[in-house]
Amino acid sequence: MGVNRRALLAATAGAAALARPALAQRGSGEVVVCATGGLMERSLQEHFYRRFEREAGIRVRSIPIELPDQWARARAGQRSGNIPFDVVTATPPDLIQHADILAPVDCTTPAMTQHALPGGCFPTGIIRTAGGMAITWSKKAFPNGGPASWADFFDVAKFPGPRSLPDTGDREWWLPLAALIAEGVPRDKLFPMDLDRAYRKLDAIKPHVAAWWKSGDNSMHILRGGDAVMSVLYSSRAVPLAKSGEFDFTWNGAIRDVGNWAVLKGGPNTANAMRFLDFFVQNPQEHLPFSEKVSFDSNNRETAALVPEAERRYRASWPENWDRLVIADYDWIAANRNAMRERWVSWLTR
Q1: How buried is 123 (Cβ within 10 angstroms: 0-12 exposed, 13-18 middle, 19+ buried)?
Q2: Residue range 234-255: average pLDDT?
Q3: Pfam families in the record, alphabetically (predicted)?
Q4: N or C: which end of the chain has fewer CB within 10 A?
Q5: pLDDT of amino acid 252
Q6: Phi/psi class of residue 89: alpha, beta or left (left: φ > 0; alpha: ψ in -120 to 50)?
Q7: Are 213 and 166 in contact (CB under 8 A)?
């Protein structure tokens, strides 16, 4: 970049400190925050939760949980009147599907207008992290180059060997969408989804799936252990595997994967939750190392200027990578999600 990174970090930190809206007074109590466990939770603890506790005087109670369980408990809490969480993790379809139980977010606060990414705040949430569901493969299995597209991933003759696929998160639309892309459906014709066609394609690959991963860490263990030669992974897991030199991945056709923060309506600590969201989008000097660790971009507009050139290949939001990502029709998914989930479970278990 032609600029000493340490000096740039220091300068940006100073500028951010001047521009950052001060926490007017120390708060009290706690805020209950949900996220997936493993690397994500550890990195959030290190760069945001503990610092929020120090600077705001509000304890963060972290709940590691997968999305289906989180929403099931949130819905049960809504019915019983005992809301279990404050800040929850939400995919774009979640923000639509669960809008009735989410509190409105003020996108006009100084923190949001000065520090959040453009378009990074919504009526019911903010962007937390951005990446993609990317095809990842073993370089040992494919020394001359691995699959470069979803068509390649589904081609077991050209690229032989066991696969691994997700059975968590948004798998009920990720994988049918990938199957349609593999079928050659143009991006502008993917929605409304032809699920019959998608599942015929999934039927063909199912016998070659050696493992269904349940978490990001699990997805890495399967590849490292040699149980599969290729998989579809969160880019947050694909990037460190690629950096190890033993694996590689492609952004081509990767399904854009945006994780959001949202606040449950009627939660135990709503004011503290909103304060946490404002806090989260500040301080690029924390977002840079956080993003490097989780291999996701995060919601701070000053951070992009700090990314070294060698790291740009691994950044989903770098323009040449971002343009290769497939963007879903979240309104259609939200409207059809329950039926899609039922079909997925039926297909997987038969």
Answers
A1: exposed
A2: 95
A3: SBP_bac_8
A4: C
A5: 96
A6: beta
A7: yes
Dist CA 23 CA 21 (whole Å): 7
Predicted confidence at residue 38, as pLDDT, reads 87
CA atoms within 13 A on the CB side of 329: 11
* C-beta of residue 46 within 8 angstroms of C-beta of residue 265: no
CA-CA distances (angstroms) from residue 227 to 54, 162, 164, 171?
A: 43, 7, 8, 20
What is the DSSP annotation of 25-93?
S---SEEEEEE-STHHHHHHIIIIIHHHHHHH--EEEEEE--HHHHHHHHHHHHHHT----SEEEE-HH
Question: Of 278, 262, 267, which Cα lies nearest the Cα of 90?
Answer: 262
Residue pair 243/314 in contact (Cβ under 8 Å)? The answer is yes
**pLDDT at 14 exceeding the cut of 50:** no
**What's the Cα-to-Cα distance from 212 to each of 64, 163, 202, 227, 256, rounded to whole Å?**
20, 9, 14, 11, 20
Q: Tell which residue, 67, 252, 248, has the closest CA to residue 178.
A: 252
Task: Name the residue type at position 267.
Answer: G
Gap between the Cα atoms of 321 and 122, Å rounded: 24
Query: How many contiguous H segments (helices) and E segments (strands) does the chain have?
Result: 15, 10
Peptide bond into 192 cis (omega under 30): yes
Confidence (pLDDT) at 4:
43
- Backbone dihedral angles phi then psi of residue 188, each to the nearest 5 degrees: -80, 0
Opening angle at CA 107, ends 94 and 269, nearest 5: 70
Q: What gap in Å lies between CA 140 and CA 205, rounded to an integer? A: 22
pLDDT exceeds cutoff 60 at 1 = no
- Amino acid at the residue 337: R
pLDDT in tens, 44-81: 999 999 999 999 999 999 999 988 899 999 999 999 99
> What is the structure's pLDDT at 9?
42
